[in-house]
Design goal:
Elements: H1 3-22, E1 36-37, E2 43-48, E3 61-70, E4 75-78, E5 86-89, H2 99-103, E6 111-117, H3 118-125, E7 139-150, H4 152-190, E8 196-197, E9 203-208, E10 222-231, E11 237-240, E12 247-250, H5 258-263, E13 272-277, E14 298-304
Antiparallel strand pairs: 1-2, 2-6, 3-4, 3-5, 3-7, 6-7, 8-9, 9-13, 10-11, 10-12, 10-14, 13-14
């Protein structure tokens, strides 16, 4: 082989080698996508496309995971390890460029990275001061993995169902309130009693007035009393203090049922009284054990020490 042939052979080999190198791709087999930019200037990059096709809309709701990093990939905050995603209503992107605008670019299952102004992110999105370790007007990376995207129509339907349920609950409570009020008034009438009403609808009937105290009990005061508790409907006794023993509690602190906290404010040390309590100020819809059924108005005979 002469020198010209050798030269041509080596030249072709070099050309082929350069061509082969230029055709190589990263280890993933796909070229790394570059950052895109919205009209407002938000820089973002979709790193994984999910199966969803519905984008977030104003009035809807989204769930997502996120990780916040410096441009050098130091982690500032990460929620990726939490099994429960962040959930927020989808709102109008008022501050652009911003992460709220970025959410609107994603569908269910998408993952993306956003380049964000740290000052804008913390003030407008996190509603707090930018950490001192981040320089003013510096950029951070926020990686977002979109969870579920709920449409406005879906959210509206859920809220409508909740409104109906609350209305039914309110009607049920009103019906019970009316029933309890009638039962208490009938009890007073049948037993020829006159009572004083509390703000919540309990009634206090003085059986024996105190012979030594003129001042009503006050909230925060420690009270000692004997008691007999029975169902207003049939007089069945469900609880009572032991003979010679006093039940102790702090008035108005929530240690006892609301009917007691309200009723004892109408009493003095030494008073003996009946406290007639509607179910909503007693044990409500849950009742208590097997002795107090749900929605049961109660009557307590008490003697304050």
């Amino acid at each position: 082989m002469n020198r010209i042939s050798i030269f041509l052979f080596l030249f072709c080999a070099c050309i082929l080698n350069v061509y082969a190198q230029n055709k190589k791709t990263p280890a993933t087999g796909k070229a790394e996508p570059s950052y895109l930019k919205t009209a407002s200037g938000l820089e973002y990059k979709i790193i994984k496309e999910g199966p969803g096709n519905q984008r977030p809309e104003q009035g809807g709701y989204i769930s997502f995971w996120f990780q916040l990093q410096t441009l050098q990939d130091s982690i500032i905050d990460s929620q990726f390890g939490d099994p429960n995603p962040v959930g927020i209503p989808t709102q109008e992107a008022l501050h652009k460029p911003g992460i709220e605008e970025g959410f609107l670019l994603l569908t269910e299952g998408d993952s993306a990275v956003f380049l964000l102004n740290a000052d804008s992110l913390y003030i407008n999105s996190f509603h707090q001061k930018r950490p001192d370790y981040l320089k003013p007007q510096s950029k951070v990376k926020m990686i977002v993995k979109m969870g579920t995207v709920y449409s406005k129509q879906f959210v509206d339907s859920v809220m409508a169902q909740q409104k109906i349920a609350m209305a039914e609950q309110s009607k049920g409570e009103t019906d019970v309130y009316t029933k309890d009020s009638i039962a208490i008034q009938n009890y007073l009438k049948q037993n020829h009693l006159s009572g004083v009403a509390t703000p919540g609808g309990a009634y206090v009937v003085i059986l024996e007035k105190s012979t030594f105290s003129k001042a009503d009990l006050k909230a925060g005061e420690d009270v000692q009393t004997t008691y007999i508790g029975s169902l207003l409907s049939n007089g069945s006794v469900f609880d009572k203090s032991a003979p010679g023993d006093y039940f102790k509690f702090r008035l108005g602190s929530g240690q006892v049922i609301q009917g007691w906290d309200q009723g004892f404010l109408k009493l003095k040390h030494g008073d003996k009284a009946l406290i007639l309590i509607p179910s909503r100020l007693a044990y409500g819809t849950r009742g208590a054990g097997g002795s107090i059924p749900p929605n049961a108005p109660l009557v307590f005979e008490v003697q304050v020490k």
